[in-house]
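Reopening closed ticket. The problem is back. First fold of the pair:
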Amino acid sequence: MKQMKRFLMAGILTITLASCGAFAGAPVLGTIYTDVQAPLAATDNDLGTKVGTGKATSILGLIATGDASINTAAKQAGITRISHVDYNSKSILGIFATWEVMVYGE
């Protein structure tokens, strides 16, 4: 009976820790805190002066909202020729996470 309880507790702990989850993707990930900006895409178009942004947010990996699409960010800034796209990924303890896309162009 004791062995069964230990096995059950180990299983519950494993599932709980594995499913924790408001982590946003990034080239590097900090379990406690992440705030990383990195490139997402580039074209051969000249560097533009306009910048459009889009953002999505997650809470506990249970609720996620927002629009971090390149298309929406480009439209928001009136960009028709994209030069490059960067993103910023933030996560705090896996409880709260954001993903922001920045589209540059003309």
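Second fold of the pair, where the issue appears:
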Amino acid sequence: MKRAIVGLGRQDVDTTGIKPRMEVEVLGSSSDHLILNMKDSDLKVGDEIGFDVNYSALVRAMTSPYVKKMYL
């Protein structure tokens, strides 16, 4: 199994309320990291992963001082 560690955790977002926008599986999370099963994805260090979020995850992300916000 190929895994990835993402710098996003429960102190940043409700990890049960996020869904990756690519073919990967969330295996678990700690307070500051997310572990993904990469399956057949070919991510490299520094690549970005997009997520769909539910209301709970959005609220926690927007109120977290550790999450950079960019308004478009």
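Update: turned out to be a display glitch only; the data is intact. The CA atoms of residues 17 and 54 lie 5 Å apart. The mean pLDDT is 92. Please close again.
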